[in-house]
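User: I'm curious whether this sequence folds into something compact or stays loose and floppy. Could you predict its structure so I can see for myself?
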Amino acid sequence: MSDDTGTQETPAGSTGPRPEPIRFFGTTWVEHEGGYAARRTAVAVGSLAAAAASCLVLRLAYQGLQIAAIGGFVTLLMVVMFAICSAMAFRHTWDGFTRRHDPDRQASLRGLLAVGFVGSLLAYFFRSLTEAPGERLHREEYEEARRQYEKRTTRRSGNPKNRRRA
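Assistant: Here's the prediction. I'll summarize afterward.
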């Protein structure tokens, strides 16, 4: 992978940079071919189903707290914690579809993202309604890599001796 663009460089003799695959989509996002629409539908349905199942699990955990009778304050803290972590995970995941995250920051937020998994699943669902999650970022990087490749490979035609000096 190239450090600048995130695209994979092709072996010698090929026609330029190759697009970076996206999870569940591979490189079908480039031309929207190979079952791209069906994959987007499956990803949307799957992420929504996973979010619904996750909410059911959280509901069971909440009922467990009520049965344990640990007190209203602790129960409130747990609900607020999951709500805040889910909102932060949603925003972080949503931002990740348009720009690359710093790996150090990503590592430090791993626990928050694990607690706020419902928010990440919902961000994945909403993004898959319009495009493959991360498609815009990958497309921008791929087009930039193609422009740079074309710029490097385009050669000036004509005799260099005829060039005017400034």
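Summary: The chain is about 60% helix and 0% strand. Helices lie at 36-68, 72-96, 103-108, 110-115, 117-128, 135-153.
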